[in-house]
Amino acid sequence: MEFSLTKEEEQDALESYIQFLKQPSISATGEGIMETADLLNSLFQQAGIKTAVRKTDGHPIVTGEYNTGAARTILVYNHYDVQPVDPLNEWRHGPFSADIANGRVYARGAADNKGTLIARLLGFKKFLEEKAAGLNFKFLVEGEEEIGSPHLERFIRDNATTLHADAVIMEGGGLDAKGRPQIILGVKGLLYLQLDISIGERDLHSSNAVITENAAWKLLNVLSTIKGSDGHVLVPGFYDDVKPLREEYLSMVDTYDIDPSDLERSLGVTRLTKKTRKEVALALFNEPSCNIDGLASGYSGTGAKTIVPAKAFAKLDFRLVPDQDPQKILQLLRNHLAKVGFEGEIKVLSSEFPVRSPSNTALVTALKNSAAKIYGKQSCLIPNSPGTQPMSLFTHVLGIGEAVSAIGAGGPLSAVHAPNENVEIDLFYKAILHSAQFFYEYALANPGPSPLEK
Amino acid sequence: MEFSLTKEEEQDALESYIQFLKQPSISATGEGIMETADLLNSLFQQAGIKTAVRKTDGHPIVTGEYNTGAARTILVYNHYDVQPVDPLNEWRHGPFSADIANGRVYARGAADNKGTLIARLLGFKKFLEEKAAGLNFKFLVEGEEEIGSPHLERFIRDNATTLHADAVIMEGGGLDAKGRPQIILGVKGLLYLQLDISIGERDLHSSNAVITENAAWKLLNVLSTIKGSDGHVLVPGFYDDVKPLREEYLSMVDTYDIDPSDLERSLGVTRLTKKTRKEVALALFNEPSCNIDGLASGYSGTGAKTIVPAKAFAKLDFRLVPDQDPQKILQLLRNHLAKVGFEGEIKVLSSEFPVRSPSNTALVTALKNSAAKIYGKQSCLIPNSPGTQPMSLFTHVLGIGEAVSAIGAGGPLSAVHAPNENVEIDLFYKAILHSAQFFYEYALANPGPSPLEK
């Protein structure tokens, strides 16, 4: 069984896509958020999904449920909000015009994440038409992903029972540079915190530097005990729970297609700290890091001002890998800071567990098989993203055994978060078919008692 | 011979003082600068001084000369500009009303430096009336001291011949907490620079932290090679030219009246890095320092932003003591930075030699003797200010053998640079008499051929 679209179906799909893209939904400003949630709600209803627009303390979350009484349930996570459009003057098409040019649709959200969302919804409808196999669906579409999902955890904790599922398909995971569908099996974890130091009430004339402390030096001296100049994190115990990559993930490292020189160019840096392709891949997938995101103290205007700064702060993020636990890392850091005599304040701004799902599962097999049928290519499996998504809300909070990012409509030229975001129309159609095919393969692999098959 | 003022002379002096204070002269904004320079010019003319308002690339410098053909010439340095008046709502009197209350005159500049300037001018007139002794005078009054004297060095270099003198009386050096006139024999030197580091064109997503450098960490690693966490400067050779205090200065340390606990309170810091009175005094007078004035990199807004910062900078000042040479220190630092692999930019923002004048001179003797006569107190001698003034322009650029800060109209309650700046009227009169008496004593100690004595 292989899914396909007629010309009429393609035309209808494109119209739905364009209609959805024309509706702005900028979470940073709130523009069009309510309208988009309502529009999505009605699209879900038209597809036969039991749907609701759920209030949060921020933008609403649209949930959907389609229960056939099947043994297995898949949770589909997406977001309906988009990034702001600045710089507007760099757009060749209106960001909400959804113009078509060169076989592509141009719009903010074309790839991230409206294209993927609509493709999954249309794939779901296609799957249902076949009445081929039983699978229960839950949909969770938030409106704050682009501003850091500040209300998602609360919502998931409050609705843990009704959101439970056997596996989660997250957003992300489009095509790689060779056009291969990516299957990203997890994310790095994150511990983000701010260290604040104060040596007194106000900045002092710097002639006092010989008799007073200096907040900037104190901060700097503390930071240099956290990480060595070789990049190694010096907090005792930091690496204790880092698991070496298992064989199944190591083979993904071996085939991961990345060129260090290309990467230097695209990142715009003088040099990478890792030399070979393999070192880069291993670092991206399984090396935890301690990064300074920001640092400020004293005078930062032009010219000279002679002061001893009274205050200083640093923003730090630790990217974590399995099985590092952000709460345990925080405790190790607190112990370390106490030991080196840190006298400031520690503010925790964000905390996420790392996730790495198994690759030998029915879910991943269904993703690979469906990708091969639709794209005629092998999938590109990745142990985990080098970045962080709120994936652990599903795996660690809801206790779902596997979560992957896959079936994205975007590709390497999609200019996500940038001007002229776009998706190739053919790839949008393929994302619909990939979604339908995946649901089908996954349902077949997990037949169980299904009303559809009766 | 002891100078005194009649009631009428006091009244006239007070009126001149008030008239001058009512004229704003804020160098930071330029408000009233030209008017003040012109007013000063006419006050000098009325006193019989050959005067000129000299253009610079900034605010004008008022110069004056009174040549009697005497063997010795004294150069009197002051400034006619004042600090801004913010916060205005904390003033109990208009900052340019020059109100009198509780025996004090309240105005911006009452002490720093208009009070001292007018007292010296009136002291000069008083001295001339006595026709007692011969002394040549040069006056240099700049209008940019409160913004760092950006055009003074150029002016002094361009007018080196006409500005030459045997000794310099700088501004500063008012009364200490016990009402003793201070004689400050020098200043610390200064090397102020900015270190800039860039690792690429733009900030990167912090998932790249495992494969790229980080401008903030690079800067921090470099800074930690410049100074140890114990406060010791690690640049090889930095301390080589630091001279131990000679006996004459050590005795000043022994009698320097400062209480570490009081100092903690007045600076508003948790603790000092020096414990005893003597340690504090020694550090203030003869310990060079490396101070971070400012530090900035990456994201400094509220909340979390996950980036690898592409740029970072630090502003650093080194306070120097005799015989450290800022240009030599700069070279040592450049060598050190090259050795530790610093790959950024070094911008020099300011450079001043340290100065410490001898204490066993006719100048200092005249200052002490005149102070004893007018105030009935011993002077408080200080080897050098813990801060920096452009004193080395006189000693190192003009090659004048001694320069001191003394005969200031202000006292410990004068609230210099703060709201409600003020001077006790009696102390203003004393500053006039101290000036006249000092000129007299100094002229006598250096009689030479004087037309006045003919």
What is the third-level CATH name, the topology of the largest domain in chain A? Aminopeptidase
Approximately how much beta-strand content do the residues of chain A carry?
15-25%
CATH class descriptor name of the largest domain in chain A: Alpha Beta
Instruction: Note the quaternary state here.
Output: homodimer
Structural class of chain A: alpha+beta
Q: What is the CATH superfamily classification of the largest domain in chain A? A: Zn peptidases
Largest sheet of chain A: 8 strands, mixed
Spans of chain A of 5+ residues with little confidence (pLDDT < 50)? 448-454
List the strand order in the largest sheet of chain A: 1-2-6-3-7-18-8-17
Number of strands of chain A: 19
Q: In the CATH classification, which architecture of the largest domain in chain A applies?
A: 3-Layer(aba) Sandwich
Number of helices of chain A: 13
Domains of chain A (count): 2
> Mean pLDDT score of chain A, rounded?
94
Give the % helix of chain A: 25-40%
Largest interface: A-B, 74 and 74 residues
- What Rg of chain A, in angstroms, do the CA atoms define? 24 Å
Overall shape of chain A: it is globular
